[in-house]
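Task: sequence design from structure.
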């Protein structure tokens, strides 16, 4: 199985020793996506932040020839679990049924003190 690094200008560039995403056979993995849009961190509106992170995930999936419909697992890291309902509402706008498996975890901190980070795993049929 060939492992291929994914790169797109439609999502924030990797700022360390990692790839935006990896394609390996029929699997596409995204790195965690902070709520960045046009180079700026969105931290004043958690719904807008969720939307930005999911748009970044979607762009990386597209670079790997996958779509949100191909996603089988999502992990959401929240700085504050009180934001769950707002994030969940936005999340529901992005994923078609059957919904992917999902974990949502409150964490002590995220890079740039972001309000959330989202990563996904897709399987291309």
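Answer:
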């Amino acid at each position: 199985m060939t492992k291929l690094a994914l790169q797109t200008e439609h999502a924030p560039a990797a700022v360390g020793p990692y790839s935006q995403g990896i394609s390996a056979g029929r699997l596409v993995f995204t790195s965690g996506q902070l709520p960045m849009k046009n180079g700026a961190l969105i931290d004043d509106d958690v719904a807008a932040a969720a939307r930005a992170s999911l748009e970044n995930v979607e762009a990386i999936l597209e670079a790997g020839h996958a779509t949100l419909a191909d996603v089988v697992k999502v992990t959401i890291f929240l700085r504050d679990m009180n934001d769950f309902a707002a994030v969940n509402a936005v999340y529901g706008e992005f994923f078609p049924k059957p919904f992917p498996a999902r974990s949502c975890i409150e964490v002590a901190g995220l890079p740039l003190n972001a309000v959330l980070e989202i990563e996904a795993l897709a399987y291309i049929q």
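The helical segments are 46-63, 84-94.
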